[in-house]
Here is the input.
Amino acid sequence: MSRLLAELGAIVGPEGCLSRDEELFAYECDGLTLHTARPSAVVFPRAREQVQAIVRCCRSHGVPFVARGAGTGLSGGAIALGGGVVVECSRMNRVLAIEPVDRFAVVEPGVVNQDLSRAAAPFGLFYAPDPSSQLVCTIGGNVAENSGGPHTLKYGTTANHVLGLELVLPDGEVVELGGPTGAAPGYDLVGAVVGSEGTLGIVTRATLRLSPIPERVETLLAIFSDVVSACRTVSGIIEAGLVPAALEIVDQRTIRAVEASVYAAGLPTDAGAVLLIELDGPAVALPPQIERIRRLAQGAGALRIEVARDAKERQRFWRARKGAFGAMGRLAPDLYVHDAVVPRARLPEVLAAVCAIGDRYGLRLSNVFHAGDGNLHPNISFDRRDPGELERVMEAGAEILRACVEAGGVISGEHGIGSEKREYMGLVFSDADLGAMLRLRGAFDPDGVCNPGKIFPTTRFCAESNPKARGYDRVPFA
Amino acid sequence: MSRLLAELGAIVGPEGCLSRDEELFAYECDGLTLHTARPSAVVFPRAREQVQAIVRCCRSHGVPFVARGAGTGLSGGAIALGGGVVVECSRMNRVLAIEPVDRFAVVEPGVVNQDLSRAAAPFGLFYAPDPSSQLVCTIGGNVAENSGGPHTLKYGTTANHVLGLELVLPDGEVVELGGPTGAAPGYDLVGAVVGSEGTLGIVTRATLRLSPIPERVETLLAIFSDVVSACRTVSGIIEAGLVPAALEIVDQRTIRAVEASVYAAGLPTDAGAVLLIELDGPAVALPPQIERIRRLAQGAGALRIEVARDAKERQRFWRARKGAFGAMGRLAPDLYVHDAVVPRARLPEVLAAVCAIGDRYGLRLSNVFHAGDGNLHPNISFDRRDPGELERVMEAGAEILRACVEAGGVISGEHGIGSEKREYMGLVFSDADLGAMLRLRGAFDPDGVCNPGKIFPTTRFCAESNPKARGYDRVPFA
Here is the structure.
């Protein structure tokens, strides 16, 4: 180990390598605090060549490695299961180019999501994917997790905005995938790498699509006596052929938590649900859309519909949505933010099932969700010190995932699988489906040293499909 | 061979299997008539189980197989190089489901592109990718080639509209990739399969995103004295933050060919170029966009700008664009339709270079192109019976590709690599980049029996990277 540390120190300089226990503590978990694993070392490369040297060094020592951005991920994707080297990319944070005519940017992986939009703004452009953590999360992590956000409905996830990647493969080779024109002959490995949760290599550069800043944004807040009517409005809007930028629902339990917190947005606590609708586009196009949505919401039983008069009011509307996690987090020491997707048409029944599951386990569960995408986020506030509470949270979580899958959904919308949900992959995928993914993994990381223990279940199945795989299936976590 | 034929006949029925020379003739080439190869047999499966049985049968006989749709591809992707079984999917042509609330369709691979939009129309929806061959080409082929079309600028290519695939792998295993919610945990193999030109398996079912039919469409035709001004207008429109549905340029040589043909659209034959601009969206949003574009075009030197008054006039405008291939094809017995992409900002210089190359080789070369995407289509009319003409066409084509790559572009925008451009992959990709693709191929088709001889160059490099590969690099074509 000391030789490994000496070699890593020689690559990144002594100030770029942490190895003392008190330094490593901060890298034991990411946004999923339930899963922890202490790395052997954390290194901070400044350039592709250093990433390449780190990967080669780790391999020569037979030590796994894990790329990490800001550590805001919610599925335990950025922890070094079983120990290993964390490659922290925050020092690779330069915006290398912005091309306004061809509308793309070239960035290093440590660039903070919102900083890219800020850099593009003078050209009338922005970077569309907007995960809730966009003030701190980095492009490298967004690429790894294929991050979405409230505006995924109109703009798509990260995958829709990555044109090219420079990647250090698990054997230290550097490849360039895709490119600025967006057209890429041969296999689309960009698509395969986006969302691969850091298991196929380490991204050292990304070419990203920039979008024109819309001329006008309008934000509406519709208040309903029950969540079913809010869902019906969402379906009505989609069926009418409208494409809002965002359609977000906050349920009654969340409203009450928010209104009792510092995030209070003046919402009626007896409301059953609020629906936040954001429209963007040419200024003249929005008033008729607002009118159609108003009629659709009224037809579905909306009690009240407000249109934000200015930026301040828009912020107040969004506060109810964006403060949900914070408000729920204040109710108890621990918060579990779930993530699953169901077909939009099945939202009302699945929500009822999710609430019933929470009640059955006696848990404080509330829902905020990207309704337009059918992307649910049930939040559970709890205290792991209470005997049996953590077990009930985990069992309820498993039941929620099962309910979503039974409704035709999947077990993750934007948080990824990581260490959190690897045992649930069998709910959605057959052995053959998982086997196809493992073929890809085996082709790039035959020894299983690149972020091992993530995505794939720890079943006999995996060991059998990949006799050569060392790391996939035997890595424990605390 | 006769045992193979007997087994194939048992799978698909005798009327579903062609093997006589005069029957196979029609399957010797696809839209790229320069490359020919006669298959050993052509089979017409009706269901996934039959595709699976065909694949297993071919493997057991050590015979390669090639999926084929309507055969409209332009890069030789659907021919059986070195002989082999063509799996013709036209009988698998059912639209299995259309889901208006969740906006997706489930189809078999033999569904004709335009038939899907027709089936979706009663729900106010359409399937956005619109290759020029959409009246006959099929979804399976569109998926294989990641087909684009004139409206790629706004709507993206096929990859942006495929949510899920059912695939028979080269070993006969069936996997389901992705799904209707569009969210797919684990690796995005859908993205890797779209555009893989039939080399990773045979698609037996596709789940496709449907889009709302826009409320209004407006089509403009701007006439310029030279192509540089038309390109400058395109850049200006993009820089202004406008997102037209299509931005197509037809150059002077094409205008003259069109006006001298049955496709005549009343264009001035002394014009240097015409720019076709299509806008779609909410009705009220379009007039201000038309005004902005009019000012931009006038500022760039447009001689005249017309707005189509009705559907008939819109068709006339498009005739100049859509008739280009036909008109050029009538000038000589052979037509070579090229395909390459350059960054939009580099269009004027690359066009000049392309025309100079054509002139230097004494060829009849004209350009129509998806200017908004930087996707060039130089067309060369020629007669392969003239001594030396074919060689000049091929040499000019190579020079054109090199010029595009030197300008930061790539060697294919939407036609794929196929057998046509495999030797040019080295212009865009390093050995490491190609090696990464071959790792994927090797993981799914280690013996190289699934559409062999396509995409990858026949160099020593490939044989070395894949010692097990039998078919990739040694397959000749006529």
In short: The first helix of chain B runs from residue 2 to 12. Residues 460-478 of chain B have pLDDT under 50 and may be disordered. Chain B is about 35% helix and 20% strand.
